[in-house]
Request: fold
Amino acid sequence: MPRSRLVTSDDWPEVELRAAVLAGELVPVGACWASPVEPQTPSLRAAAAAWTLRDARLIAGTRTAAWIWGATSRPPTPLEAAISPQARVHVDAGVLLREVVIDPADLVRLDTFRVTTPTRTAIDLLRTPNTGERTFGTAEAEAVRGLIAIGAVTVAEVEDRLCGLGTIPMVRQASRRLRALLESGATAVDGR
Reply:
């Protein structure tokens, strides 16, 4: 059986793991740790998110998915996950859970963990409502910029997808937010 590339507090006491970080022997990957020579790939980040989220029915979405794809350098606090409206799960306080219908075409399986595609991630971030716990702010804008900057999505892909969504809630707001991000000059529009 292949050994995991991640080390967790299930393996060693957290104090020892943090000491190994200070010694340069490990680097943090979400709530886990890995060798500094281990490439920080989407698979590695997905494994770290899966260790925290644990329930296989959970799907990494929004800022957590953006981190997994490499669009942001750190995972969000709390982690953000989605689940089918028909499923019932208990999550820790360190997880922001939303019920949402996600088409299987909008999901990618990284090992055994499901993550929204980069395009779906960008759309969900742009459609973040400005109510309750979740609001569209700097972190969401930076995640969308990051997805575009690393080439995970193009502006054209996001615009086409938004146009295809019709009249579902927050689509016009998402289009305005995308235009504002582009007009702010904070992101390259090479993919346009």
Notes: The first helix runs from residue 14 to 22. Strands lie at 27-29, 32-34, 59-60, 79-83, 95-99, 107-110, 113-116.
